Amino acid sequence: MGRPESVAQASPTGLIGEARQPARGHPMDQVAFARFVRRAVDTAKTERGWTVTRLAAETGVGRSTLFRWLSGDCQEFPELAKVRGFCRALDIPVTAAFAALGVREGTGRDAIDASPTDAEAEAWADMQRILRRLIDPTVPRAQKTVIRDMLRYLAGGVTAEAS
Predict the structure, then answer these.
(1) Dist. CA 88–CA 66, nearest whole Å
(2) What is the C-alpha to C-alpha distance for residues 130 and 140, in angstroms, rounded to an integer?
(3) Where are the alpha helices (DSSP H) in 9-160?
(4) Maximum Cα–Cα distance across the chain
(5) pLDDT tens digits, 4-53
(6) pLDDT in the model for residue 28
(7) Domains, in order of start, for the chain
(8) In contact, 36 and 100? CB cutoff 8 Å
(9) Residue 46: phi, psi to the nearest 5?
(10) What's the pLDDT at 17?
């Protein structure tokens, strides 16, 4: 085993310093993260035909790290760059991974702004509702595609069909 890697904590607005574990009162949920990774891996296998080796190459996350994540064997928070790469390659909102890890509303946010405006609080609540729909396994894939396309459109990006 190598030395522990330091990991940047995340917040809804960006990165908040370096940390080796989640903020106090926010323990990492290893089981939820393992379930999240399992769903993503299974989807990549069935919908894209990817093997674990291909998944590792596409996401930039090593095979051994993927297997540790799948087994829930995370002694510390995963590297933020690896989580971002994993989510980006699989077209999963990184906030879904943060939610699975137990990073919740307010984690790290206090360091930026102790009293968010009403508009920020309302926007954050809306984002949480959207995120729950995107990670809900009972929501049909077609609905998730519509949600993602609409978010990309609203953010000034391109839709999956246009790319």
Answers:
(1) 15
(2) 14
(3) 30-48, 52-59, 63-71, 80-90, 94-101, 118-135, 141-154
(4) 47
(5) 333 333 333 333 333 333 444 445 678 888 999 999 999 999 999 999 99
(6) 67
(7) 7-114 (1.10.260.40), 116-163 (no CATH)
(8) yes
(9) -80, -40
(10) 33
